[in-house]
Amino acid sequence: MQRVAFKMYLKPGFEEEYKKRHQTIWPELKKLLSGTGIRDYAIYWDRETNILFAVQKIDGEKSSQEIGVNPIVQKWWDYMADIMEVNNDNSPISIPLEEMFYME
């Protein structure tokens, strides 16, 4: 099992829309994430910087970036592109974070 953390950037003024979209996350996307071993996935928002901090556990060797070729994920990226800072392919700009401490 891997623990992965990363940060993304929310555009100012879209906090409620971001929450709303994730409260109604597509069932097929949730199934895909679970099916690739991603679980215990949480995203936190820093109000001062508009940085989204995400942490997830992944069973197996697959990374969350590897599922980016899936059409469901690409459709989700397109759906979220108007409220987040994104790359040219509409994937969210995502900066991996190094784990400095963990307590189970």
TrEMBL record:
Domain of life of the organism in this record? Bacteria
* Gene Ontology molecular function: L-rhamnose mutarotase activity
Q: Does the keyword Cell cycle apply?
A: no
Q: What top-tier enzyme class does this entry carry?
A: isomerase
Q: Which UniProt keywords apply?
A: Carbohydrate metabolism, Cytoplasm, Isomerase, Rhamnose metabolism
Q: Which Gene3D superfamilies match?
A: 3.30.70.100
**EC number(s) per entry:** 5.1.3.32
GO biological process annotation, one example: rhamnose catabolic process
Which InterPro entries does this chain map to? Dimeric_a/b-barrel, L-rhamnose_mutarotase, Rham/fucose_mutarotase
Q: Which GO terms describe its cellular component?
A: cytoplasm
PANTHER family per record: L-RHAMNOSE MUTAROTASE
> Matching NCBIfam families, A to Z?
YiiL_rotase
Q: What is this protein called?
A: L-rhamnose mutarotase
Which species? Proteiniphilum saccharofermentans
